[in-house]
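Re: Re: C-alpha cell formats

Sure, here are both.
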Amino acid sequence: MSIDINQLRELLSAIAQTDIAELTLKSDEFELTVRRGVAATVPSIAASETLMTTIAAAPSAAPVASVLPAVVPAPQESSPPPANEFKGAEIVSPMVGTFYRAPGPDEAPFIAVGERVRTGQTVCIIEAMKLMNEIESEVSGQIVEIMVENGQPVEYGQVLMRVKPD
C-alpha cells in the first residue's frame, strides 16, 4: 500500500473534523501515526487544536518522509490579560452530561441570578447516562452569573455558575 501526498492531506483533513485523538495506520511499507494535542499545529486546523504527524518507515520500505505535509508552529498571539477577570467562586460541572436548571420541565429553577445560595444547596441537575445528578454549591454567596442554558450539554470542569462568596 502506498499513499501519495493528496491522499495524506485528505486523511489529515478528515481526521481534523473528528474527535479522534490518535490514529495509527500500518502496512508492510510504512506506519503512519497521527496524534492530536501534541507539540505542533497545522495552520488549517483551529488554533486551539494541535496535530502532529509522524511516519516511521519499515526496514524494507523506501523512505516516505517526502509525503509529510509541512508542519508549521502556530503563531503565538499575545493577548492582554482580561480586564474584567472574575474574582469569586465558580461552580463547575463534575461530569459530562446535560445541564438542567429545574427539577422538572414545569417546575421553578433551583436558583436564579441575584439569589443567595448556601453551601450544600442544590443549584442544578446534570443528566448523565439517564441518571439525574443533583449538583450542590460548595460555597455560600450570591449567584452572579449562570453560564449555561437549560438543556445544554456540559463538559467535565466546565463553569456552570459564578458566585460572589459571603
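Second one below.
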Amino acid sequence: MAHRDLPGVIAPPPLIYLGVLFIGWGLTRIGTWPEAVDAGFGWLAAGFGLEPRLRQGAAVTLIIAGLLLDAVSAGLFRRRGTAVEPWKPSTVLVSDGPYRFSRNPIYLGFAVTYVGLAIGMDSWITLLLLVPCLVVVDRFVIQREERYLAAKFGADYLAYRQKVRRWL
C-alpha cells in the first residue's frame, strides 16, 4: 500500500463546528429542559445576562473577529502555496503571522465565530456544546495533523511545536 501524503483528519473542521452548532440550534428549538438544568444555567438562559443590544453587539464583534482571524490565517497558506484544507497535502510549514501565537489560528477563529453565533442565537446549550466540539477537533483533527506535520517537516516542525502553543 502506497503512503498517502495526508494527515487523515476525520472530517473537514468547518463541518465539525457547523454540525455541533446545528445540534445546539436544534436542541434550543426543542427548548424543553429539566428545571435543574435551567436553574444551573439561569444566567445563560436569560440572554447570557446581557441586554439584547449588548448581546447582539458582542455576537457580531466575535463573529467578525473570528472570520478575520480565519481569513488572515488562510491567506498566509495561500500566499505560501500550500493547501488550507487539512485533507490535502501540506507543502510548506507556515509559522509567521497568527501562527507565531497559535499553531491552529484557523480553528481558533472557528471557535470565536462559533461563540459569537451561539451568543447571537441566545443559546446557552449551543455555547456549552463548544466544549465537546473542541475535544473532537483536538483529538481527531489537530492531533492527526500534528503527527503528519512532524513526519513531513521533521525537526523544523518539532522546534515550531515547542515554541508555539496549540491554541493560545
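The chain has a mean pLDDT of 89. The radius of gyration is 18 Å.
- S.
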